[in-house]
């Protein structure tokens, strides 16, 4: 069973990486003058949507936390609305944190918010897909030795890695957005964050994942 879960987990992560690659090339066939660097805001929107869609479909197909109880339509709708609220709260919370760390309050606010959306896509969305809008389950998973499955262990690692990747991207750059090259900050930060996720996934293939439970 554990080997099966590892394979399914690997497929989910590979699909996410593949969706990012497709978001780089596919839009150029439909959008004129599309470029990751020149139209980076558009690309971030497309990338966030594609990664979110892949996560939703993947977890619906794999069903790592499938319940034997049948849920009513109203329960599913309520759960979905709660997930949307959690995601929006996550985006605004990250946006506020970035502003507190030095990003301008009004100038280039769209770039800052899209960075918050990108980070939420790689942290909050997987949590919602696996754990749902259950804050107690979130606290359990991200507490010391709180994971109960390889899916939760992977969620813990990839979420923390996304935060660390974001911090490493911001650490050498003052968040004053005062220079032209800083406008593309969110683009290469996205690449850095995904690289961190991919590195962790490769570590899992070599059996390193189990050691992280006691980190």
Automatic annotation (TrEMBL):
It is a multi-pass membrane protein. Keywords: Endoplasmic reticulum, GPI-anchor biosynthesis, Membrane, Transmembrane, Transmembrane helix. It comes from the Eukaryota. It is found in: Endoplasmic reticulum membrane. Its main location: endoplasmic reticulum. Pathway: Glycolipid biosynthesis; glycosylphosphatidylinositol-anchor biosynthesis. GO terms for biological process: GPI anchor biosynthetic process. The chain crosses the membrane at residues 9-29, 41-62, 83-101, 113-135. It holds the Pfam family PIG-F. One of its GO terms (cellular component) is endoplasmic reticulum membrane. This is Phosphatidylinositol-glycan biosynthesis class F protein isoform X4. It comes from Physeter macrocephalus.
């Amino acid at each position: 069973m554990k080997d099966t879960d590892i394979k399914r987990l690997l497929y989910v992560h590979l699909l996410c990486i593949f969706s990012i690659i497709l978001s780089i090339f596919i839009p150029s066939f439909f959008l004129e003058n599309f470029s990751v660097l020149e139209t980076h805001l558009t690309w971030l929107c497309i990338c966030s949507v594609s990664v979110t869609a892949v996560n939703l479909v993947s977890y619906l197909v794999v069903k790592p936390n499938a319940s034997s109880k049948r849920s009513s339509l109203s329960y599913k709708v309520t759960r979905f609305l709660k997930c949307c609220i959690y995601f929006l709260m996550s985006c605004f919370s990250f946006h506020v944190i970035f502003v507190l760390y030095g990003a301008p309050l009004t100038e280039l606010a769209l770039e800052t918010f899209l960075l918050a959306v990108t980070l939420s896509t790689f942290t909050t969305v997987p949590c919602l897909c696996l754990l749902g809008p259950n804050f107690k389950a979130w606290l359990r998973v991200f507490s010391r030795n709180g994971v109960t499955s390889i899916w939760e262990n992977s969620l813990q690692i990839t979420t923390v890695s996304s935060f660390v990747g974001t911090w490493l991207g911001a650490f050498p750059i003052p968040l004053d957005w005062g220079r032209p090259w800083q406008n593309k900050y969110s683009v290469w930060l996205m690449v850095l964050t995904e690289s961190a996720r991919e590195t962790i996934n490769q570590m899992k293939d070599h059996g390193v994942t189990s050691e992280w439970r006691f980190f």
